[in-house]
Amino acid sequence: MLIVIVIIIIAAMAFTYVLPLKAMASTPPPDTPPPEYGTDWGLDDSTLPAPWEDTEEEEEDTPKPVLLITSTSLRLDVNQSVQIQYIMEDFPDGTMLEWTSSNFEIAVVSGDGVVKAVAPGSAEIKVRAGEIQSSVLVSVNELRAGKIVIAVGEDVARAGAGLYELKVGDVIRLTATVEPAGAKVDKFSWVLGNDRVAAISPNGRNCDFVATAVGQTQVTVTADSLFDTITFNVIESGMPLDQVWEYIKLAIVLIIAAVVIVVALTYMAQRRKKEKARQKAAAAKRRREEAERRAREEARIEKRQRERREPRPTQDEERMTMRISGAAVGAGIAEPGNGAKDQDRPLTLDDLD
User: Fold this and answer.
1) How far, in whole angstroms, is CA 336 from its chain's centroid?
2) Cα–Cα distance between 318 and 213 in angstroms, integer?
3) Strand 206-211 and strand 198-203: pairing?
4) What is the CATH number of domain 66-140?
5) What angle do CA 70, 72, 75 make, to 5 degrees?
6) How far, in Å, CA of 67 to CA of 325, rounded?
7) Domain ranges of the chain
8) In which order are the strands placed within the sheet that holds 98-101?
9) Which residues contact 51 (CB under 8 A, 6 or more apart)?
10) In this predicted model, what pLDDT tens digit does every residue of 221-248 receive, in sequence order?
């Protein structure tokens, strides 16, 4: 009983103490300051804040930059491309984004966020702006092979759809290609239809084919549940007549061309030879004429020199010679020069009579 009375007294005291505190807390502060904060000291403190008011202004919150890839995990096929969606907010103007791929053999990404699947597998695509980054996982699906085709060299003669023509002894390489490109298959298996006509040497997706005899055979390649078959017609290795005639015509044309070239070269050589002979004769004539001119010039010079050395007869001697010549003529004496004897005989007094 005493314990109950004590509890009641404590509860009453607590109730009496708590109610005034709640009333004080719930009473709003007055709009004007208390009287003791008036102008008793002659100061106008109406603009001063009340001491119970918070004088610290709340600072404005600066928004933080946000960079987030919104595209969820991407699943692509090989060679498929997609634009990655992202949010970029509250970054300074001119902020550049850096896109990277964790495995470029699986997926590549461009500078504007376009990702392209390269091969089956998974790669993480990241975008970064400063210290903030975001990423997304890209999964590339395994390609399923839809078709298999045997590729034959372009130099092999085609005789029809899926039919090729070879000669005995020809060796070619066959290659199995899978469509679409990039699809994987477990194993390639090659089968030859007629081993009496040809022989094969398989090596994965490649196969060497050797034509050994005249005839026809098929070659089949199988991969998973896909296959392709082509047919070869092997003929004799001898040259067909039409091809022989083509070669003959070509040989005739070449021979005619060679003869024309030889004739042209011979004619040009003869002309060159004649021209050289003419030039040689002209040079010899010029040398001969030059020698004759020099000889005449030397004779003329020598004659002049001889005339200068011989004394000229005086005037009296010339008159005497004229008298003697006249007397000789009047006496019937032959003038010098009429005979060899008279020319050699000296003149005497008898000749003057």
Assistant:
1) 109
2) 128
3) antiparallel
4) 2.60.40.1080
5) 140
6) 150
7) 66-140, 147-235, 241-308
8) 74-76, 132-140, 121-129, 98-101
9) 37
10) 998 889 999 999 999 887 666 677 888 9
